Structure formats: structure tokens, C-alpha cells
Amino acid sequence: MSDPLPLAQQGDQDAFEQLYRLHAGRVYALCLRMAGDAVEARRLTQDVFVRLWERLRLFRGESAFSSWLHRLAVNVVLADRRSAGRRLRRVVTATDAPAHEGAARQAWSPEQLDLERAIAALPPGARAVFVLYDIEGYDHQEISALTGIAVGTSKAQLHRARRLLREELER
Amino acid sequence: MSARDDQHRRDDELLARVHRLPREIEPPADLWRDIAAALSPAAAPRAIGGPDRAWGFGPGFLAWRAHPALAAALVLAIGASLWLHVRNRPGWRMEATAGAPVLAASTIATDASSTARLAVGHIGDVDVGPGSRVRLLAAGRLEHRLALDVGTIRARISAPPRLFVVETPSATAVDLGCQYTLAVDPRGGSLIHVTVGWVELNGASATSVVPFNMSAYSRPGGAPGTPFADHADDSLKAALYRFDFERGGEKALRVVLAAAKAPDAITLWHLLERTEGTARTLVYRRLAALVPPPGGVSEAGVLRLRDRDLLAWWDALPGSPGTLPWWQRLAVRLSAWLGVL
After folding, report:
1. Is the ipTM here above 0.90?
2. Domain containing residue A142: CATH number
3. Window 44-73 of A, Cβ < 8 Å to B
4. Residues A39 and A85 in one domain
């Protein structure tokens, strides 16, 4: 299969769908873990790909496309977290679905599912730092730049998240 | 084994489990359908959503839908909305209202003595003031989008929310059914003043929701400023600017809090998520003194920015849609839809 990126950059929607099929799983995983619920993750994933469609022509190939898209997704999710508009929209979303309902077709071990649920139950600030640091591999400086929190706060949130997770999983 | 060693071991075990998590999670099978519909103006129009909470149609809405007259009004409103949506033919149309504005390559430029009026499909119009540069970015059934690089526009939009978007160098204004004036200075900073309805202002790192009779500044590269009321004390406005854009910190925040009155509650509500630690506690206490949190809203929940608590409080703030009587909410909504304001 040829690379759909150049065609998608020219506005070809079929090529853009191919890009979506290639990358949606990674983006959805990020959104689901950062948001902690499936309804929000669905909306965020949609926002990411709509934003991608708008900005695709700005991608110049200076980094891997997957890295560029991942950074775009992180920015969309973090901007949404701070958004007062999100709070207003949330009241009209449907009843929150179970966090991993959309992933029912995927094979999950009970251990993985327990961990995902424990992550989803973390307080939002601690969850964001944990996902970015321990799952997505950002360092504290990068998290500070992305989220606007101090490096020390990021470290404290990570410590707190790990402690809460350990307590939950060892219960 | 020391306590520290034990903690390291348990952290390692946790991280080992984390690293076994899948990198990808299969999204809902029908998600692409929604994305494709949002991308393509030619695709089937998106269903008109339910009444927008921003206009106050919350859970209380269910309580009065049994009234036949209100039900009829609602049917009328939905019908009008659908009609507006269907008749929303994409496109722009410019006319000079003074002097000789220049239209070239989808860019409108006015000099010191010229102005223009831009028809936005059939959903409203935009007055372009002197010394402005406006670029027309997109015109579709689902969105009309333009960029204001410098100068002033006044927008009057009568349509369901989110159909009209204006980009500036510092923030993006998303119309939620309203009238507003937006000015951009040569350095990219902006000031929005909303006269009817609401505008969502999205910046690089946050969002402000600016209701009618309020304004907000924005500066490139940062979060949009905190909204402030037209009649707020001048000392509040000045200190808020220092807090938002000049690293005014807690000193500026204390001036804002001291000058705040009940009509400034929406300003303080926005500050809850722009502060941390003791500063957030100060904001909480001042807001609670001006507008006590409704039952069920806990201090701990607000300080943790728990959505449920923040939203419940938001609905109780003076000037928020939740505090308007139903007939006023309906009138505003209908007016926005029908364009009679």
C-alpha cells in the first residue's frame, strides 16, 4: 500500500481515511487514558482528526509523521482539559460509558484491565502526568512545557499517581 | 529491605505492568463516520444537536416541556433552526460600506478611510472596520471560518452554535450564537467584547467562555485572558490583565479578589482553573462569599476542579444561562436563531 500522506495533504479524503485507519488506535489510546472515559475519548479523537485535517498541509516532514500527530493529539487533549468550554459541553454528553467499552473487541488480560481501570480512576491532574510520563515517555520538563505546571508539580503528581495506583492494585 | 527499597521495587513492578499495556486501543467502529461528516461540507449535514447547555437548556428543561405552548415554541425553534441550517448556503459576499476596500485572493483589506460588510452565507454578516485585514478561509455548510490579522470586525450571527469561527494571531473565537466586536492590534493581541450570546475563545493552552456584556483580552502564544464584566471595577480589570499577561501572580490576584463583586463571579469561576494551591483556595473563598456554592458542591471537589462541582456552581452564577428565567432563555435562543436581535 502506498503512503497515503501526500494525497491526504492535497485534500483527498480517501487517503485521509487510510491515515485514520493507520493511526486511530494510537490516538484513541492516548485520548482514552488521558480522559478516563470513553465518551470523552471518542469526542477528543474526533477533535484530533478534524484538527489534523485542517493542519495536515503544515506537516513538512521534519519529524516522523506519527510523532507529529502524537504531539498534536497531546496538545488537543491538554487544551481540552483546561477548557471551560469542555465543562459546558460535558453536561450534554450522554451518560458516561465504561472506560474501555469501545475496546471490547480487543483481547485484554484481567491484569491489564485492572490497571486501565485504576488509571481511569486517578484524579485528572495525576492521571495526565502519569500517562504522559510513564506511558507516553515524556520527561518532566516536556510535561511542564505542555501543561503549564511546574516541574516540581509534575514530579509530585507522578509520585501521587503511582502511590494511588499501587494502593488500588494491591487492595 | 528499607522502606525506600521496597517502594522502588513496587514502582518497578507497577512500571513493568504499565509497559505491558497495549500501545493502541481499537476506537469505536463508527467513529470514522462522524469524523468524515465533520470534514466534508458535501457530506450529509450533521444532525442538529439537542438544546445547548450554554443557553441554559439543562435538566430543568425537562420540567417545563409538558406545557403545550412551550412545546409548540420549541418545535418552532427547532424548525427554524433546521430551516436556517438548510438555507445556509456556503459563501461570502462583500460590499463596500465606505471608501474603497480591496478584495484580492480571498483577502479583504481596508485602509483608514474604508470599511466593508461581509455577508456570511445566510447566517449573518460581519462589518470590517478601517485599517483591517481579513482572510476568508473556509465557507461550508458546517463552518464559515475567517482570519482577522489586524483591525476590527463586528459580527452578527444568527445560527446554531459553532458555525462561525474567527482566527486571530492570539486566539480563535467560536460563535455560540451571538454578536460581538473583535479587535486585533499589530502585535497580534486581541480584545473581544460580546454584546449578545456567548463566544468560546480558544488559545494555545486554554479556553475562555465570554458571555454577553463581558470582554476578554488575548496575547499570542498564551491562554486567552480571563473574561471580565463591562462594569467591573477598573482596578479589577487592570489587575486581571497583570495576572493574565504580566506575571502579576498572587499580588495581582489579591487585587482582583478584593475588587470583585457578585457580577464578577464568572471572572472568578474562570480563575479557579488558572490558579493552583493556596491561590486557588483564595479564589474559592472569595467566590463562595459572593455566590455561595449550591448544595452538593464541595470545596474539595472545586479545589480538585471536579467537573460536577464546577458545572453546578457555574449554573448558579449571576448572568450564567442557568440563572435566567425560562422565557428569557427561550427568547434569547429564538432571537439568535431567527436573527431578530
Report:
1. no
2. 1.10.10.10
3. 45-46, 49-50, 53
4. yes
Does this model's pTM top 0.80? My answer is no
Domain enclosing residue A161, as ranges: 108-171
Hey, what amino acid is at B152?
T
pLDDT digits (tens, 9 = 90+) for B245-260: 888 899 999 999 999 9
Q: What is the CA radius of gyration of chain B?
A: 23
The number of distinct structural domains making up chain A is 2
Q: What is the CATH number of the domain that holds A59?
A: 1.10.1740.10
Domains, chain B, ordered by start? 91-225 (2.60.120.1440)
B274 CB contacts (<8 Å, ≥6 apart)? Answer: B206, B223, B226, B244
Please, which residues 108-167 of chain A have a Cβ atom closer than 8 Å to chain B?
Answer: 111-112, 115-116, 123-125, 134-135, 148-149, 153, 162, 165-166
Residues A91 and A37 in one domain: yes
Q: Does A49 lie in the same domain as A3?
A: yes
**Cell numbers found for residue A83:** 477548557
Is B290:B18 a contact under the CB 8 Å cutoff?
no
Whether residues A69 and A113 share a domain: the answer is no
SS (H, E, C) B2-50: CHHHHHHHHHHHHHHHHHCCCCCCCCCCCHHHHHHHHHCCCCCCCCCCC
Q: In angstroms, rounded to a whole number, what is the distance separating the alpha carbons of residues B334 and B310?
A: 28
Q: What is the pLDDT of residue A107?
A: 63
Q: Are residues A113 and A93 in the same domain?
A: no
- Residue A28, chain B, CB below 8 Å: the answer is yes
Query: In whole angstroms, how far apart are CA B22 and each of A14, A26, A46, A56, A67?
Result: 27, 9, 21, 27, 17
Using the Cβ of B12 and the Cβ atoms of chain A, whether some distance falls under 8 Å is answered with: no
Q: What is the DSSP letter of B226?
A: P
In the structure grid, which three cell numbers stand for residue B15, read together?
A: 512500571
- According to the model, what pLDDT value does residue A19 have? 94
